[in-house]
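Input sequence (47 aa), recorded before submission:
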Amino acid sequence: MSTILVVSGTGTEIGKTVVTAAVAAAARGRRVAVLKPAQTGLAPGEP
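Predicted structure, token format:
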């Protein structure tokens, strides 16, 4: 049986990436996939 873990948050700069990296590191040796399905905000230099 596989497990799906979703890391989400209500704002930016609250540690989602850090938590995701820690969970992925803790799961080392297992089948792990990490993806970022969406991103909000403007790219640098966009008005």
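Checked by second reader. The helical segments are 16-26.
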